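Hi U.,

Before I forget, here's the chain from the pilot set. I'm dumping it here mostly so it's searchable later in email.
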Amino acid sequence: AAGPRELSTLPTNKRDSAPLLQEVPRDQLRHAMVLPPSVERRLHRIEKEFAARTRLARHGLQPRRRVLLHGPPGCGKSLAAERLAFNTGLALLKVRFDTLLSSYFGETHSNLRKVFDAAQTNPCALFLDECDTLARSRTARNDVGEANRITNALLEMLEDYHGDGLVIAATNLDSALDSALIRRFDEVLKIPLPSASEIEGILQTSLSGVATEKSMPWKTVALEMDGMSCWEVTQIARNAAKHAVLEGRKKVTEADMRFALAEIHERHHQAP
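Structure:
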């Protein structure tokens, strides 16, 4: 497994020497997930192949190195990336698109090359969250030709990646996934919204560090959250725990859950 790395060793952009990558400390990586069995199996297979990469190489086989996660916002794509990094022991390096993208011709391509070179020479889990940002930001500047060049560069660098780590990309786009992009990945995995039973598991996992009342109607509360994202369910659990503390209770009650649930509903109604 790769050891921790100093931020000072990470590549920087030419414009103001800002880092192109951000390392997430291992003790901050979230790795507890409640997933459909089929998704859990496929994530575990990536981890298992990485652990057995030397044995696979003896047979002329390569582990899955390039992973594309897609699904609706808040479904757990970032969480899955953190979990893969944690379980493989790799440092998680997130691409900072705010410093990678440049309005200067050719500079975004150069920055992208620096990022992939760093991942190629230093084993890590390179995470490109919302990877469609690369093309979308260029299109917003009405420079479609440059957008195509950046997209093609990304495809080429993905294809050429043979580092001893992982490249994990995530996108909210679903039906619009480019077939050329899909072909560059060894694993394309959809992270769906949680089912009611998975919501129940997420709630219980999120509240495992605090006491809850024995009569908590987990199933009923979970059914009322059906259709919500993993992020929303986690927020409800945390807000319920905070509400219990503020109300001076030692256990999280159904009333705390309903208070937090009402807050989320209210926020949905007030959203622009």
